[in-house]
Specification:
Layout lengths: L13 E7 L2 E7 L6 H4 L4 E6 L5 H10 L4 H8 L6 E4 L4 E10 L6 E10 L3 E6 L7 H7 L5 H4 L2 H36 L6 H29 L11 H64 L14 H22 L4
Parallel strand pairs: 3-7
Antiparallel strand pairs: 1-2, 1-3, 4-5, 5-6, 6-7
Helix pairs in contact: 6-7, 6-8, 7-8, 8-9
């Protein structure tokens, strides 16, 4: 049995992609010292760290790349607000990756920290699950822009993948809101209020993440760091405008949710009114019948109809006549 004071060692398992124009290699890193030779390489490389559990490895990476202590604190603290920090020889970008493994009710937010250096990009994730598979495929394409451009462009592709997922989630929310609206209006399916509020919760999470992301992109495109090349600025500006568009759409969807709740509550109120109207009509019809039944239920000794041969049928004719007349009256008044 392992002693409780013995430090737990997490195995190292990192992917390193070395690439450049006419060059591509994928390396599986099992020791932090294997990274050092790539620092002096003429080629760019992307190092992806799929989790933050290995503190020793994080410290080793900090020392290898000479990362500032404050930058490492931002990377390790996964509750950071999306932001960009510019240092002397690297740029730190902290963003939130949003994804849904099952449905929108299970929307998850994961912090991704991106470090941009002269010839490297490092991405730190909370969990191994990510949305960067498309970028991994693009790196292998010898004619792709990723091979030809610098590390700033590669960092842009990571940000672009994250923002594209925002778009995907926004489309899912929009489609779900439209489905709920149709179901509420057509009454083909009974919609629960919790379903509407789940969409509202998703919109709030998207806004909470995208708003500061828009601000960090604004800061990044105005940056005068030597790591951000002029030719990359239009690409960064493009995803900035995408976040602006997403925020505008989210505001529209938030208003749609408000309208949806109003429609839902109005429908509930109308149904209750219909029930109350039906019960009121039934009660109104039975009021005179109850009166007639009450009269003939009195125990007076001399009541002419009691000994009359057709008294019972005469009373029923009164009941039916009153009921029919009241129904005709209500119909003409269009009460039902």
């Amino acid at each position: 049995m392992m002693d409780s004071s013995q430090e737990v060692k997490h195995p190292i398992s990192l992917d390193l992609y070395s690439f450049g124009e006419g060059h591509f290699e994928k390396h599986h890193i099992t020791n932090s010292e294997q990274i050092i030779p790539f620092l002096e390489s003429e080629h760019k490389f992307w190092l992806n760290m799929p989790n933050l559990n290995n503190i020793d490895l994080l410290n080793e990476i900090k020392n290898i790349f000479d990362l500032h202590t404050m930058a490492m604190e931002d990377i390790i603290n996964t509750q950071e607000r999306p932001k960009v920090e510019i240092y002397d020889h690297f740029i730190l970008i902290v963003v939130k990756m949003l994804y849904s493994r099952n449905n929108l009710a299970d929307l998850e937010a994961e912090q991704v920290s991106i470090v941009i250096g002269k010839n490297y990009v490092i991405s730190f994730q909370e969990h191994a699950f990510d949305i960067f598979d498309g970028i991994r495929v693009r790196i292998e394409n010898p004619s792709g822009k990723i091979r030809k451009h610098g590390t700033d462009y590669f960092a842009y592709t990571l940000l672009d993948a994250i923002v594209d997922e925002y778009y995907s989630l926004l489309e899912k929310v929009t489609d779900k809101i439209e489905v709920l609206e149709d179901e509420i209006i057509s009454e083909e399916k009974r919609v629960k209020l919790s379903e509407i509020y789940n969409q509202r919760k998703s919109i709030q999470l998207l806004k909470k993440v995208i708003w500061p992301t828009r601000e960090l992109l604004s800061t990044l495109k105005k940056s005068e760091s030597f790591l951000i090349k002029r030719r990359t600025l239009p690409f960064i500006n493009d995803i900035y405008e995408q976040t602006v568009e997403i925020m505008e759409n989210l505001e529209m969807q938030r208003e749609s949710i408000t309208t949806l709740v109003e429609i839902y509550m109005t429908n509930i109120s109308l149904k209750q009114n219909e029930v109350m109207k039906t019960l009121t009509i039934i009660a109104t019809i039975f009021i005179p019948l109850t009166f007639v039944a009450g009269v003939y239920g009195m125990n007076f000794e001399y009541m002419p109809e009691l000994k009359w041969e057709y008294g019972y049928w005469f009373t029923w004719s009164i009941f039916l006549g009153i009921s029919i007349l009241m129904v005709i009256y209500f119909k003409r008044k269009r009460w039902f």
